[in-house]
Amino acid sequence: MTDITPYIILSKPQLGENIGSTARAMKNFDIEKLRLISPRDGWPNDSAYAISAGADNVLNNIEVFSTLEQGTQDISLLIATTARKRVVGTKPLNIFEAVEKAFEHTINGGKIGFLFGPEQSGLSNDDVVQADFTISIPLNKNFSSLNLSQAVLLICWEWNKIRISKAGVEKNNIILNKKLKKSTELSNVGDREYFYKQLDQMLKQSGFFYSPEMEPVVKRNIRSLFNRASLTHQDLRTLHGIVRSLSGKSNRT
Amino acid sequence: MTDITPYIILSKPQLGENIGSTARAMKNFDIEKLRLISPRDGWPNDSAYAISAGADNVLNNIEVFSTLEQGTQDISLLIATTARKRVVGTKPLNIFEAVEKAFEHTINGGKIGFLFGPEQSGLSNDDVVQADFTISIPLNKNFSSLNLSQAVLLICWEWNKIRISKAGVEKNNIILNKKLKKSTELSNVGDREYFYKQLDQMLKQSGFFYSPEMEPVVKRNIRSLFNRASLTHQDLRTLHGIVRSLSGKSNRT
């Protein structure tokens, strides 16, 4: 049977307590796949266990990665949670649409990641542009003070609601909808990043980045531009071919 | 104007920390009316202030009562949150029905209270029977470990969703909609096609279309790939630049 729970991915979490209470929040909704990207205080962490109130199995099965790229290699739909409006071009979705879309994606065999940034600063722009979408939790404009585990709690809660409401559907294996693409056809974040890296390099060689200080911005724009297209594996092959062909590096004769 | 926020009522809360984090959770959703029934450690309580992260005004305006009867005197619809099935005859409602019903009730001038029991034991049967309805938060049957403030958080979240959906989305200035890009920033079909044509031509020159019969299909795929990204004018300029640069046709020196 398809595994239809999402991955919760914490980028550079700072406090062990927050990792523990995130695990606890997740387990209330039967969501147990937690990944850490470069946790500040290393892993494992005693303070996380002290606070997890019995969600030990979630903590024991945590996967730790040193970069976001590695930690999202196999994720085919990555949704970044952000507290504020972003300048990067990644497409914002309202949280309910996003969870619904994500749920359908898993039903079709895709792997979902919900990405959360560090407690103090939130996600960096470089992290955000890796995502397919951003979502923000609508809060009191004069007082937005959700902590990390509360933000995770609300996402897991919404996920669980969709799961409950669609439970019958999923069992009967009926896919309601206007599906265009099978999720399994969608490219993974890792494959996309591989393409972007190659493109970066070729553009560098060809003198595209004429302003060094703008180079990181332009690279982010390119990522968010392409990520908005929900690239399939086939799309990526096409793009690789286009880039190779244009730059005269094609193997074809 | 009618005040349409509910009262959060904590019956015999034990830890000051939980009162503080409850206030903080509430304030995220602009819900500020908190009542305590016979708090174990008295009131005010320093630990509550220490943890409330700036929700001081909620704490300063707390109303304290010694019995539930006094603390719900003016409440016209009381909803008790319970973790488990009850033997008492109070009618259980599903949480979404309950919040919806409660919201309509306030619109019609009623006063709503959501009642939460002590951390360890939950509400006593004597407390529960005071309520019009009970609600339970659906959780993982093998791991139900929401703390008090998380339970309050979820209720406030659901309340806020109803408030947003009912009370004139524009007025609350909340963006429930996907369109963040101004349509004027989006590229026109003509501009896009101009880019695709240029790309087609360059790809042709570089030998990309090695199978003549597939050429039209590949061209369509390229168009649909890029069109899915909702390209802006700026995106198009970037893409033109990329293509020129890769193919060595850049004017830049």
Mind explaining what this structure looks like?
Two copies of one chain form a homodimer. Chain A has 253 residues and is α/β, with parallel strands linked by helices. The first copy, chain A, folds into two domains: 165 residues, 3-Layer(aba) Sandwich (Alpha/beta knot); 60 residues, Helicase, Ruva Protein, domain 3. Chain A contains ten helices and seven strands. In chain A, helix 1 packs parallel to helix 7 and helix 8 crosses helix 9. About 5% of the residues of chain A have low confidence. Chains A and B meet through helix 1, strand 5, helix 7, helix 8 and helix 9 of A and helix 1, helix 7, helix 9, helix 10 and helix 11 of B.
Distance between the termini of chain A: 45 Å
Tell me which protein chains meet in the greatest interface and how many residues each side has.
A-B, 59 and 60 residues
At CATH level 3, the topology of the largest domain in chain A is: Alpha/beta knot
Percent helix of chain A, as a range, is 40-55%
How many H/I helices of chain A?
10
List the domain count of chain A as a whole number.
2
Largest sheet, spatial ordering of strands of chain A: 3-2-1-6-4-7-5
Count the E strands of chain A: 7
Average per-residue pLDDT of chain A, rounded, comes to 87
